[in-house]
Each structure stands twice: as structure tokens, then as C-alpha cells.
Protein: PhzF family isomerase
Organism: Ancylomarina salipaludis
Amino acid sequence: MTKRIIYQIDSFTKERFKGNPAGVVLNADGLNETQMQNIARELNNSETSFLFSSNDSSHDGKIRYFTPQKEVPTCGHATIAAMYAKAIKENLDSCILNYKTQIGILPFEIIKDEDDYQIAMTQGKFELSPALDLGKRQKLITALGLETSDLDDRCPIQIASTGHSKVMIGIKSRKKLNALTPNLNDLANLSQLIDCNGYFVFTFDSDDQDILTYGRMFAPAIGIDEDPVTGNANGPLGGYLVENKIVDYKGDIFEFNGRQGEQIDRLGKVNVRVKIQDNKASLIQIKGHATVIFKTEIEI
């Protein structure tokens, strides 16, 4: 039996009980997959991250992510939470830590600001699939409870990924976004057909000059009916907007803030930064604040 330190962190916010909650196990060495899955199921956040020490000079440690139902290759808000918890526990100065994930070794930046921290995560390689065919597109629209007239004509329905793919669905109205009551069973079934378990519905209908988009993300196929604030949706959204020429930018950087969680009262903000080369997204980073809800220990 070993004592494990567990944090509950709200990511992409400085206000408790907002943003996206994640569990963090800082000393996960020795845990097996069944134990990690049980901890994630017990905490019942959309994801829980597990930090392992490094046995290789090429990286500073290893990180794994579990939903209440299964392991996933990467997770934005659970990375923000993990690095925030580590920074607090170890009283770190600003630094970059290279962590091994299922999608490769990624740099995570800890930014110390007086007595607090922001965390920036470099995501995996950006990939954009062709638009869904008409049949799958119609199944998706119906499952979400949308009409074709609700869609933003500038925005093709495509799967975008920085390591954990999401379907991008642009719509015209924030009111419609917040009124969505999707058929979760139909979305889960569709995930098997398109090999993508997340659906990110977004709109440019914002009344705040600092906020470009509002979004909601549904992933019932992996046990997440609705994710409050999703790094692995807002990040790929940046690449999607660039490569579809939906947004203007100067030079080789496109940066914006996305807001999510409004309808479920877990509002949070993700800063997205896209580096561009030859009109393609060459690197995507997300950045956000976090706050501790509780810290505890278990023996397992």
C-alpha cells in the first residue's frame, strides 16, 4: 500500500467550481491500468491525469490520461491541471518540462506570475480530415438537434486533431448553441462510423471583443456527455480556422481566446496560439489558468 497524492483542479479558470475539473495523481509510479481506471472512475471527472517519473534522459516524466471509462491519448485541461499541481507542490519557477504522452514527447511550459502560475501546453501535430460526406453530415446534424439553416456556411464539418480528434461544427447563434440537447446515444453510435468520439459545436456569436468563439463539446462514446472546457477542441479549432481561411491573421501567428461552459455554468477561457507555415498550422499551443479545489491522499 502506497500513499498517493491526489489533487482536484479546475482548469481554464481562476474561479472555483468553474472551468473544467480534472483529477491529478502526482506520484503514479507503480499503479497499474486497472488501478488508474478505478481512480478515474471514482473521481468521475471527464479526465484524470497520472504523472510518472522518468527513466530516460529524453524526457522529464510520463503522463497518462483516463476518462471514467477508458484511457485517452492526450487531454488539454488535465495537462493544465497536472502541471499546475506539480508547480504548486514543488514551488517551481518558470520552466519547460518535456513529458512523454501517447502522441509523443511534448513541452509543457510553467509560467510563474508572482505567487501563481499559468500553464501552456504544446499540442500534437495538427491534422484536418476532408469534410464529412452528406450522409454522415445529416446524421450528425439530426443527432445534435440542428437544422441545416443553423450552420455557419463558412465552416465545413470536418474532423480536426492535435492528438485526440474532434468534429468541428460551426453554427450561427450562441442562443442556439446554449439550447442544444443532443441525442447522446445517436452521437455515440455515429462515433463508431466516423472514428471520432468528440463533437465540438462552436459559434462566432460573441459580445466580447476578447472572445472569438463560444463552444460546447460532447463525447458520449467515452462517457463524457458534455465536457466543460476542452483544450483538445479549442486547440484544433485554431488550426481548422487557419487552414479553411475563415479568419484573418498577420505574419505567421494566429491567436485567439475561446470560451466554453456557459450553458452548464462552468465557464472557462482557453488561449490558443497557432504558428503558421505555408498557410498551414505548424504548431498549436493552448494556455490557461487553474485553481485548486482540494488535495487529498489515498492508499492503494
User: Anything to note?
Assistant: The longest strand covers residues 104-113. DSSP finds six helices and 18 strands in the chain.
